[in-house]
C-alpha cells in the first residue's frame, strides 16, 4: 500500500509541474503586453521599458518561470498587475466564496444522484427508472448558466426566496452566506447529478449481475439487503471516478456561475483578470485550480486503494 501511495504522490508532483509549465507558456504566447495595457497606447518607450523591468517582464523566459514557480510552491503567487497587491491577498476572501460553493454543489449532486441511480437500477425498466433517467438526460443537456438564469427568475424574482445576485457574507451568520450560495450551487449541481445518477445506475446494474450477488440471494438474502449491503459498495469505484472528474468541471463551471450570480469568488477574479490583461494573476489562479484538480484525482486514486485493495497490490 505504501508503494502505491508513493507512486501516486510522485505522479501528483510531476503532473502539477507539467501543468504549471503549460499554463506559463500559454500566458507567454498570448498577444499583448501587460505593461503596455497598464500604461495605455500613448506610453513613452522609456516608461514602458521601465515598467517591464519593474514587473520582471524583461528577464529570460526560463528565469521568469523559475522565479514564479519557486514562489508559488511556498504560497507567494506574485503581485497583481492590476491591483498592485499580492495575489494571495486577493485570493483569500474569494476562496471563502468559491470553496463553500463547490462543496455545497458537490454535496447536493451526490445526495441527489446516488439514491436516484441506485433506486433506478433496482427498478430497471419500470416507470421510476424510465422517468428518472429521462429527467437525468434532460439535466445532462442543460447548460448550468442557463439553469442558473431560470433559477433566478423563479426563486429570486418570482418567489423571492433567495437573492438574485451578490454574496451576503459570513460575518452576519452562516445562513446569510449559504442563502446567497444555494441557487448557484443548485445550478452547478443538477447537471453533475444527472451524469452521476446515470453512472451509478449503470454500475449498480452491472454489479447486480455478478455471481456473488446471485449467490447471496440464493443463501436467503433479501433483494434490498443484497442491493444496499453488497451491490452498492462494490459499484462505488466507477462512481468515485466520476465524482473526481466532476470536480474539475465544477471548478470550471464556477467561472461562469459566479459571473451569472455576481459572486466575488475565484472564478469571477479569473474572469476579471483576463479582461484586464492581468496575466500573472490568471497564471497563478489557473495553476492553482489545476493543482486542486490533480490533488482531487490523487485522493480518488487513494480511495481506489481502500475500496479495492487489489489495485494497491498490483491485482494480486
Automatic annotation (TrEMBL):
Gene Ontology MF term list: dipeptide transmembrane transporter activity
Transmembrane spans: 12-30, 95-121, 141-161, 181-199, 235-257, 278-300
Keywords (A to Z) from UniProt: Cell membrane, Membrane, Transmembrane, Transmembrane helix, Transport
Ranges of residues in domain ABC transmembrane type-1: 95-300
Membrane keyword on record: yes
Topological type in the membrane: Multi-pass membrane protein
GO CC terms: plasma membrane
InterPro entries documented for this protein: BPD_transp_1_N (IPR045621), MetI-like (IPR000515), MetI-like_sf (IPR035906)
Compartments in which it is found: Cell inner membrane; Cell membrane
Highest taxon, organism lineage: Bacteria
Protein family per UniProt: Belongs to the binding-protein-dependent transport system permease family.
Name of this chain's protein: Peptide/nickel transport system permease protein
Species of the source: Paenochrobactrum gallinarii
Lineage, opening ranks: Bacteria, Pseudomonadati, Pseudomonadota, Alphaproteobacteria, Hyphomicrobiales
Amino acid at each position: 500500500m505504501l508503494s502505491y501511495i508513493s507512486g501516486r504522490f510522485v505522479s501528483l508532483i510531476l503532473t502539477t509541474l507539467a501543468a504549471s509549465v503549460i499554463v506559463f507558456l500559454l500566458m507567454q504566447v498570448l498577444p499583448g503586453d501587460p505593461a503596455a495595457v497598464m500604461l495605455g497606447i500613448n506610453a513613452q518607450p522609456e516608461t514602458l521599458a521601465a515598467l517591464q523591468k519593474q514587473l520582471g517582464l524583461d528577464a529570460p523566459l526560463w528565469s521568469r518561470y523559475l522565479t514564479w514557480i519557486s514562489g508559488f510552491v511556498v504560497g507567494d503567487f506574485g503581485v497583481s498587475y492590476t491591483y498592485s497587491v499580492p495575489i494571495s491577498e486577493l485570493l483569500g476572501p474569494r476562496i471563502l466564496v468559491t470553496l463553500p460553493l463547490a462543496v455545497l454543489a458537490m454535496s447536493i449532486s451526490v445526495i441527489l444522484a446516488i439514491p436516484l441511480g441506485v433506486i433506478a437500477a433496482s427498478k430497471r425498466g419500470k416507470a421510476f427508472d424510465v422517468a428518472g433517467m429521462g429527467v437525468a438526460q434532460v439535466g445532462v443537456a442543460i447548460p448550468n448558466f442557463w439553469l442558473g438564469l431560470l433559477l433566478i427568475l423563479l426563486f429570486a424574482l418570482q418567489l423571492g426566496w433567495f437573492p438574485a445576485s451578490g454574496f451576503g457574507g459570513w460575518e452576519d451568520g452562516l445562513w446569510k452566506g449559504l442563502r446567497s450560495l444555494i441557487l448557484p450551487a443548485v445550478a452547478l449541481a443538477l447537471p453533475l447529478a444527472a451524469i452521476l445518477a446515470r453512472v451509478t445506475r449503470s454500475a449498480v446494474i452491472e454489479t447486480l449481475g455478478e455471481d456473488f450477488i446471485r449467490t447471496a440471494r440464493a443463501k436467503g438474502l433479501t433483494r434490498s439487503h443484497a442491493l444496499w449491503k453488497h451491490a452498492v459498495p462494490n459499484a462505488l469505484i466507477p462512481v468515485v471516478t466520476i465524482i473526481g472528474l466532476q470536480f474539475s468541471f465544477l471548478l470550471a463551471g464556477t467561472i461562469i456561475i459566479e459571473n451569472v450570480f455576481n459572486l466575488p469568488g475565484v472564478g469571477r477574479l479569473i474572469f476579471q483578470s483576463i479582461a484586464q490583461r492581468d496575466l500573472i494573476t490568471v497564471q497563478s489562479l489557473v495553476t492553482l485550480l489545476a493543482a486542486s484538480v490533480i490533488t482531487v484525482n490523487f485522493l480518488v486514486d487513494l480511495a481506489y486503494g481502500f475500496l479495492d485493495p487489489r489495485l494497491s497490490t498490483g491485482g494480486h
